[in-house]
């Protein structure tokens, strides 16, 4: 199976499994796991923050960040297709009792003026804007990395208006590699930063929330409250350390494979492939009305290619650690054969 469903399908490499098996461990809940502590410090430096906290998932990291800054009656600004707004089970309303206000943008990227336009007047009738969430790269926007001038502008607008900022950087290393910028440069200035370890980095589980030392007691309390405290988590943290050391630079290979996939799919008249200025590891395309997306999806799957279906006619293909250039060539041939039968 050539599995382009998501970069979450990656499996730990043999070397990563060895690192996990040999990890030095302790009681993480008591702050005594040395491997976890080492991962948290290294990740903080890479994310431009003072410290970080190891967590089971990036969704938990995002939800803790929201609870740090928002409470009942508060409002969170997010891109209309952002992960925290669409793919976290309404967590902001459940955990923080806060509402969300979408910023119109199909790319997932918005500027400082878009933030200013969505701010409400300070009246007893309106929710209180408290937090701006930036997702980098933008998943539903095509895997786009944020231009630095746009993210810097959003940070300035938020700070000038008393808003806190959270960077949902689940795929931040993809953005850093594509932009040829240090990841710390992309994370610096935000109040909190999420990094997912179980996507392109190839870990079986885990994420980090990077933040100031001042926030550590509150983060640890929310981690405990949400059931995120662990015991001998060094076995999992060792995978994260291995990934940071060995799987970041190689993300460029995933980007190159995505570029090759885009170029091949773009030649097929049966598909409308989305073009973006800077590509990371995603390719989105739509199936025009005159063709059957159901037939395309079924025949591709029967032939050994799995995609993610975003809506009735929009599909996503994601390159990752387990997909090499030969797999892309094979997938493109299968696409050609299937599309010729539509």
Short description:
The protein has 342 residues and is of the alpha/beta class. It has 14 helices and 13 strands.
3D structure, described in words:
Helix content is 41%, strand content 17%. The strands form 3 sheets. It has a 7-stranded mixed β-sheet with strand order 2-8-7-6-5-3-4, sandwiched between helices. Strands 9-10-13-12 form a 4-stranded antiparallel β-sheet. A two-stranded parallel sheet has the order 1-11. It folds into 2 domains: 234 residues, Type I PLP-dependent aspartate aminotransferase-like (Major domain) (Aspartate Aminotransferase, domain 2), CATH 3.40.640.10; 90 residues, Aspartate Aminotransferase, domain 1 (Alpha-Beta Complex). It contains 14 helices and 13 strands. The radius of gyration is 20 Å and the shape is globular. Helix 1 crosses helix 11 and helix 2 runs parallel beside helix 11.
Topology (elements, then pairings):
Elements: E1 2-3, H1 14-21, H2 34-46, E2 51-55, H3 58-69, E3 74-79, H4 83-86, H5 91-96, E4 99-103, H6 112-118, E5 128-135, H7 148-160, E6 164-168, H8 172-179, H9 183-187, E7 192-196, E8 207-211, H10 216-225, H11 234-246, H12 251-266, E9 272-273, E10 282-286, H13 293-303, E11 305-306, E12 308-309, E13 314-318, H14 325-339
Parallel strand pairs: 1-11, 3-4, 3-5, 5-6, 6-7
Antiparallel strand pairs: 2-8, 7-8, 9-10, 10-13, 12-13
Helix pairs in contact: 1-11, 2-11, 3-10, 6-7, 12-14, 13-14
